[in-house]
Amino acid sequence: MNHIAIVEDDNSIAEMLSFHMKAQGYQVTHFADGEVARQNLLRESYDIVLLDIMLPNCNGLDICKELRQKNPSIPILMLTSLDGEADRVIGLELGADDYLTKPFSMRECTARVKALLRRSQLAAPVEEAIESVDEKLSIDELNLDAGSRVVCMNEVLIELTAREFDLLFYLAKNAGRVYSRSQLLDAVWGYSHDGYEHTINTHINRLRNKLKRSNGKSEFIQTVWGVGYKFYRPDEDGS
């Protein structure tokens, strides 16, 4: 049984989330205080965290950053206010996998939770990107192993979130092909995100920071202006 941590100080929202998550068969633990949640999340093990930003005693963004440093693979779904655009972007940059804007439907929330859990548990890897859980890719100094979800560059382990790995593997497997943000959202996130294209931007930026090259070659993930992104092919360098 998956164990969900709900960190939300609005009791009506927390009760609604708890009711629907329990109805899906999940075990639920609720925290209304930010500092209490922070200490517990760093100490105990959960399968996914639904994390509000505005919390008493400890900001949800600070919790996200600290939790991501301790546990790179745990799925984090941020809960944000309608006018909290900056907070949503910061949350994604700090390592959140996805976000929901209040007010949100329980149907959409449940879909997001299920999608995040599937990817973190490898029950359903990205279908178009990973045909076999044993598949491996090697491009220049970058090596990806779908079975172990391990990424190494120059034999140094690169820690990625589950969503970052899926996005990187999808692009790398289809190196040279250009994808729009909406195509990447559909393929990697598994459902439409109308107006959520900047989710891709923040994940791409995080991947680029983690995969910086020291040999002066082009970045692994390249921007195609007006279209989207692609993963470079070695022959594009003329090498």
Automatic annotation (TrEMBL):
Transmembrane segments: none
GO cellular component, one term: protein-DNA complex
Domain Response regulatory, first and last residues per copy: 3-117
OmpR/PhoB-type domain span: 134-233
A GO MF label: transcription cis-regulatory region binding
Source species of the chain: Leucothrix arctica
SMART domains hit by this protein: REC (SM00448), Trans_reg_C (SM00862)
Protein origin, superkingdom: Bacteria
Keywords: DNA-binding, Phosphoprotein, Transcription, Transcription regulation, Two-component regulatory system
4-aspartylphosphate found at: 52
InterPro entries: CheY-like_superfamily (IPR011006), OmpR/PhoB-type_DNA-bd (IPR001867), Sig_transdc_resp-reg_C-effctor (IPR016032), Sig_transdc_resp-reg_receiver (IPR001789), WalR-like (IPR039420), WH-like_DNA-bd_sf (IPR036388)
The protein's name: Phosphate regulon transcriptional regulatory protein PhoB
PANTHER family: REGULATOR OF RPOS (PTHR48111), TWO-COMPONENT RESPONSE REGULATOR ORR33 (PTHR48111:SF1)
Single Gene Ontology BP annotation: regulation of DNA-templated transcription
Residue range(s) of DNA binding per entry: 134-233
Function: This protein is a positive regulator for the phosphate regulon. Transcription of this operon is positively regulated by PhoB and PhoR when phosphate is limited.
